[in-house]
Structure formats: structure tokens, C-alpha cells
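## Example pair
The file below holds two records. Each record gives the amino-acid sequence first, followed by its C-alpha cell line.
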Amino acid sequence: MGAEAEPTQIRLVCVGDDDVATGSHVRKWMETKPLEDLEIDVQFGVELNSALEILENGETDLLAISASSWYVCKGAPNTMVAATLPRRDENHILVAKDRLDYLDYKSIILVENRLQRRQLRRYRPDFRILDPMAFADMIGREIPAKSGLGLLAWMEDLHATKMITGYVSEMHLFNSAKIDSRRHKLMTDSKENSARFLPSPLNGLTLLISRKGFPASLAEKIGDAESMTAWDCERTILDRIEPDIHDKIGMIVRHRQIPSLLNQAEKEKDLLRSTSLLDSEGDIIGDVSLVEILIEIIGRTGERTMLVEKLVEKEMAPTHARLVMSEWQDMLNLVTKEHEEDIRLGPARPPFLDL
């Protein structure tokens, strides 16, 4: 596709089956009609290698793929991330009869991802938070799939027969399976309390991949600026974190309006934040919108958390993402370091954070 003129029709190939959210995100994006005079022809359910071949041969203009899949495959030659779709459903959901606060003591909750298991142990230490594979071994029942719709159906059967209290899944799987059960989102910002469930890195992000030379003006029109900021920053951060702890990291990068930040600071009684955003006359300092970077890692039992939080200007967000990782690594080394016996500091002690 030439860069001289913007096309009126775009051919799009969507990578992945119903187990991934890409197809759902693309359909919702098309419903919003990104450009009235742009016709989008979509082919769903294409395998990654085939999609890359189609893109390379010029048989399609864009390839839609989840950010986590593109990050794992490390991209492809002669391609670029042209745009990103609006971030959707980055938070996991709890399928249960009631919200977390009101579930029974020692409820059994099945959770596939390590991050959400630790977050739930932090929130309710009395819960029995189990990996589905471990629970299958306990009850002597074979599990049909390690993830996706097959696992969801298996857990829903256990939930319907009251063998478990609930389970954690993703919104697109829940919607695809058309399950008639109550679900509750594990929110990044809860209106009821200060507890946070940061999503897994890159979760909810869908990328539009093109060959080099895709019109930048068109990419800007169809893409989402906040999601592109999130992709640039979260990818940069992940590159600087050891791969063996990626599944223990909660992270989100997002645009925040200062009035919203002030409301949050008031709710949490965060005087430092509220004063940092206002001048001596009580007026807002600087831009109305900033980029918030949140990264956390939780200990094995959920009792201890290390959280790094930054508010930065939009234009400097990728640079600050690199800088914040220097602070992160220094802090992580300190909290995971064993303390040897010392005459002044006392007897030997285990690390503050057990990963």
C-alpha cells in the first residue's frame, strides 16, 4: 500500500480463535465506525504464520493480533505496529454468586493465572485459591484444557454443581460461552474500597500490524492514542523484567485526567498527591492529562506487595518507563535479599518478599 493517498477500503486479517479476545475487540471496534468513509473487510480466525504470509504477500493491509502474542513472537521483519485498538476488558472477572466481600469463609476459588491467585490471597487470606490443574488432581477428575473455552466450561460445571464457590476468567470467554451466572469484575480502581487488581501486562491490548509504509495519517485516525502509549510503555517495562516473573507482575499504563486524580486522592486521603497537582492558589498545575504507570509484584502468600507508581507527561512516558525500571530493579533487589546476621541490625532474616 502506498503512502501517498489514504485508501477508502482496508483489508484486515484477525489472528487467533475464540480463545483469544482479538476477534471480539475487532468486532467492537468496527461497530464504533472508526471512519465513516472507510470500508473494512475482515477475515477472522487466521493462524499467525498464515496471517504474516498474507500480509507479506500484500493480500491484506493490516493484521490484528493481541499485544501479548505479538510480544512473545518478537514481531516480524518488514512490519510495524501501525496502530492500536482501544483497550478493552483488561481486567479479569470473578464468576460467583456474590462479590468477594460477601462470599463464604474459606470459599474455593479456581484461578488459572498466578498473578490473580496472589491478588485474591491478598484480598481474602481465608479463601482457598487453587490452580485448576491442582484442583483436578485433588478430586481425581481429568481437566479438558489448560486454558480457553474448554477450561471455562469445566470450571463452570464445577461451579454449577457447587463443588467450588467460583472461578476467575476473562470477559471475552465468558461472553463467548454465553454462561448464565453472575460475574464481578476485578477492578483496577474499586469504588467500594482501596483494593486494586492490576491486570496482567499487555492484557486487553490489540495491535494493528502493517507492512512498512502504511499511511501514518490514517493510522492516527483509526488508532487509539492511549492504547499506543500503553503498548510502548508496557513493552519497554517487560523488556527490563526477568521473564520468569512476568506472570507475577501486575501492570497498567493509562491516561489520567487531573480532576479524576484529585478525586482519587481525596478518597484515599493522599495529601501528597493532591498538593503535587495543585499550586499555592489551588489551581491545576500543567497539563490536564497525564500518564499513570502502575507496576506491582506480590509475594507468594499475598501478604506483601511491592508497588511502583508514577505520574508523567504524555510526551515523556516511554522515557520515564525506562527510568522507572531502574528504580524498580533497585527496590526488588532490596526486598528479595536475605538479611545476614549483623551485630547492629540483628539476627539473620528471610527476604521481605518471597516470590
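Second record, same layout:
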Amino acid sequence: MDYQTIKSFLSGLKTNCKGVERINDKLLVIESDDWGAIRTPSKQAIQAFESQGMNLSKSMYKVDSLASTEDLEYLFDLLLSIKNANGEHPIITANSIMANPDFERIKASDYKQYYFEPFTETYKKYPKHHQNLAILKKGIHEHIYRPQFHGREHLNIVRWMKALQSGDPFVRYTFDWGCTYSGKEDYAFMEAYDWNDIMEVSLHKRIIEEGMEIFKKTFGFQPSSFIAPCYNWDSKIESTLGELGIKWIQGMSNQLAPTGSFGQYKRVKHVFGERNKFGSRYNIRNVFFEPVTNPTIDWTDHAMAGINAAFLFQKPAVISTHRINYVGYIDPKNRENGLRQFKLLLQKIIKRWPEIKFISTDKLSEYI
């Protein structure tokens, strides 16, 4: 057992020993963020950004993009190839972004007004994505893909629009390529519910309400779990989440609560099963499988150690694994690597715990 695996196990023990809720069944929840959100639109965009001196060597923008139809088909084929002792397949809780900027309309307004389009409309503007919605609905029907709510956009609209209006050359340049990249190695534009002014919380509540409406119209059901982009949200939005039927708030053991300055947060501790005053519970991610972030780590052993720690304390094993690990629209090798390691992990899980139950986050309420 290497250092990273030991570290993962010990970290898992620390996370899972907290909280009073215990579950006898061995539950595996796979939470995957960012489905539907734009990142890099093409290889040509990467080349253009780098020609302007932007360093993408360590950036998610190097390989992340909207999942293509091929990406979805490869992922779904993998999930259907795995079964537990009861013949059930793994299911991905696909935390979905419902809309992206409408670049044409924003530019037509001379950057004075923000406009958005449903992610299904964004699909139509990409060359290998036109069949995506039909594939997603097939995955839902086959119980391998369960969309849940991640937000209307994965974008801090106030900050992005302010940068566009100021004429920031990098932001204007990436905008012209249909991208919200800032040209810097930061998440300032990605933290949708961070704020510089507390008054922005009312805007965030309206955005959430509109995003939930798009979700229901698109998928035909009400989501009952939510995760904030970048684990960053003000607790004041939780009243709106409760009103909209959110039973589970996904996240880490620390909520990053805004303080008015990007990168400076108040850390709010949460434990599994904890309930807020609006009736929502917190679900805590306690396993991490993110091969794209560090190729030197044995992510399969790393995740197995985290799962073992969760089960020792009778907690569900909740895997955090972002979309970026499974998309190959920009770079097929990225998808091949992610799927290869993911399949190996699922096979090891089945061998170690054949009785394991695969559930989506919204089904946790059935066990508490």
C-alpha cells in the first residue's frame, strides 16, 4: 500500500467517523459534476488560446468539453458491462448544468445584457453532439444515468459580464471562441454562487429557480439533490433549495461560504445525514476518483481505500468523479485513460463487495 493509498484511508476514517447516521447496506453513490456545461469548444480554440500566451498545461480547459455522443456511448457501454450480485448496473448521479451563455445575443447587446440558452440548444451548435439528449434519456431509462441539479450555469455571471464590459482582452478573446475561460489558472468565473456583494444572493435564488424549471422540462422529473459549482455557496440559498424540493445537498465536509472576495471563504463543517432547518440533508463525498488531475496516483487503489473507510463506519461510499475524466471530444486519449481506470475500479469493487448496492444520490432517503 503506497503513501497516497494510506493517506486516502486515513482521511476517510476522519471523515466517516463523524455523524450519527449509520446504514447497514453497502451503498455506492457515484457523483459526477459538470454534465451540460461548456468548457473548451475545440482543439482549434486551444491552439488559439496558446497563441495568445495563455498557459493551459495544467488547466482543465486543455481536455474538458461538452461530452459528445461518442463520449456518452462509451461511458454507458462500460456501465452496462458491470453488474453486482443482484444484476444491477452502476448508476452515475450526473449533476447537470441546465444552460450556457448565448454568446451571439450577448455580443449583439454590446455586452450590456446577459442571455442564456438551454444546454440542449448548445448541443446543436457542436458537431458531434446532436444525438446527445436521446442518448441521455436512454441512459436514464436503463438506470445507469440519473441527472440531478448542479445549477443553471457553471458561471459567475456578474464577474464574467463585468470583465467583458471592461474590455478585458483575454476574456473578450476567449468569448469570441465561445468560451468563458479567463486566461488565468483560477476559478473566478466558475464559482456560480460566489459573490462580491451579498445582494447577489437574491440573483442566485432566481437563477436556481429558473434552472430547476429547465431541468423539469428537459428530463420530465423533479431533482431532489443539488451540488453547488466548486462547493461554493451561501447558506441563504438553502431556503430556496428546500422550497424547490431539494432533499440532499451534495458536497465535501467543508462548505465554502462566500465572504465577498474570490478565494477567501468561511469553511462551514457538515457531516453525512445532517439536516438543515429547511429539511434538506447533507451528503458528504468521501471517495475521490479523478485520474485527470494527477496521472502519478493509482486512483483505483486510492478510491478502494476510501470506500473501505466509508464501510467501516457504515456510511455510503460517495465517489466524486467529474465529467472531465470521461470526455474525449478534445483528446480521445483522455477518455480512454479515464474509462480504463474506471472499469478497473468497478471490477475491483464488485470482486470485493459483490453485495454492494448501486444507487443515485436522490435514493439515499430510502435508507435513512
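Notes on the second record: The longest strand covers residues 27-35. The chain is about 35% helix and 15% strand.
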